[in-house]
Description:
Strands 11, 12, 13, 15, 16, 17, 18, 19 and 21 form a nine-stranded mixed sheet that branches. The chain has a four-stranded antiparallel sheet with strand order 3-4-5-6. 41% of the residues lie in helices and 17% in strands. Among the domains are: 54-176, no CATH class; 336-397, no CATH class; 458-607, no CATH class. The protein is an alpha+beta fold.
Amino acid sequence: MEKHPLHLKIPDLQTSEEVQDAVEKQERLTDESIPNDPNERIEAYMDRLENIFLNKDERVKERNLEMLKPAIYDAFIIKPENVPESFFELQQKVARERGQAVDEITPEMREKMIEVIIEDQKASLDSWIDYLTSEDAVYPTWFKYFAFRNVIKLSQFDKELGKFKTRTDSTTAPFPDIYREPLAQICDLYLEVANDNKALKDKEVQTLFSKKFPTYYAELIQKSLASRIENQEEIKGKWIKYEQGNNQDAEKLYKSLESKGTGWCTAGMSTAQAQIQSGDFYVYYTEVDGDATQPRIAIRMNGQNEIGEVRGILPHQNLESQMTPILNEKLNDFGPEADKYKKKTADMKLLTEIEQKTTENKPLTKKDLLFLYEVNSSIEGFGYEKDPRIAEIRSKRNQQEDLPILFDCRQDQIAFKPLDLKADTLAYIGTWNSTVLNQLPETIQHIYESFPDKKVFLKTIETDSNIKSPQEAEQAILEKGFKFYGSAKEILQKTPFSQENKEYNLVSFSVKSLGFPNGATTAEIYQKAEELGLELCPAEVGPLLRLNYPDQPNGEYLIVAMKAINDSGGDPHLFYVRCVSGERKLSTRWDVPGAGWRGESRFVFLRRK
């Protein structure tokens, strides 16, 4: 049984309803009574959480997360009626300071603002859920639970005050950013107390352990942010390899990162040990006073031959532009395994060039603008979040002047509302629904709900003469470097493929744009689509779409509106294509009977021409 200090940090947890339920369930399953011991009672609860959120079967884990996320959102995301009037007053003030006259915030404007607040909160909460349930977060289950339990009570971190703002029912800010290094350091302290009862006799340990999580977390964040790298322009240094399974190397790795402000979770001893157990670890250190001691790049391996992740020391672990050549040279050592990182290094190089042009007030070419606005493909970096330079550079641009250059058209050929659509309109940026789809002229080439972040998926794909069976589809997907997720491989094997050439005209709509802002069931969505003149896709559209959509933007999920196919357990599944952290996958979603889809969920249908 794993030791943990939760009964010390949360004394009433052992007697809580959720722990009691977990204890009773385990006793029923094992037919053995659990001692009235805080550690053992809480451990039963941790086992239950682990089975739900950290299940080793990716299909089961994904299913559980999708089922539970709506309830999590409902519990922690702000309700529209709780958005305070002061928020809208502040938006008016900000608009006036920018020189924008806003006499009145209309109901439509309020609804849009609230939608943005809710989406930002969901995205920030998703970041925590995705991180804590991923392989990157190598913390014990009990620590993940404890961290999440605290984070949902916090607003953003105030760097000037060095503390977190308290979260209330009317908080409009997103949930806090993830600071991995401080989390690892807190976990180390708690493990020390859990593994050694005498540790609390040490005054320093006792003082730190007695601090509330938000306080200690904030102090460590402030300390990490205060760690400044001297001679940041220095790139001369060396790579050091830490070998898989070598505990001495794990300790050396940990000590080499102490007080260096990398932001890596490997800066915690327990996480360093866990990562060394799972694979080799490479760190590039630049010279300080002649010694290579400042960590700048990390390459974590899965085993010895597969690259798990590449991280830098900028916010969200993005890579410094001056370190890109160093990384590129090192990646050559890994052969074909490094191919998936070539686009990232190329993107970062071009972004740096554009940043330099912007700093020097030099004009950007059409190629630069297409890249900056991610018109043809998303910009991929090495961090957990988008490179902040993208938003920074865009904020300095006049988008209205850039659009005609991007779309190679006149200003009057860009429509921003349905009434502006004309016979020669080339681009439309505005409200998207089936009515607008039917109003589009044949000349239309670019469609966005908002530019550049919400591009409308409107695509025609054809069947492939080389893909007439599930086996051929699987081989083609793997050859293109795409991955399978969930039950995708199993469902693919049950997918019928056309033996003759066909053309599929596809279009996507969010559940909200179909008329269900609060979500709807699959049956409701399909019925509405039929009323609007849309059709369900044959199942083969799932794998064919994956193959024909290599430039899918990062973070996008597209669910294929199809007749569900049952897996071996009898559960119905739908295909969906997704792009997560730059990896493009063919996945499936369990179509839970009677369960709803969120308003933001996006379905792909066949459109009638």
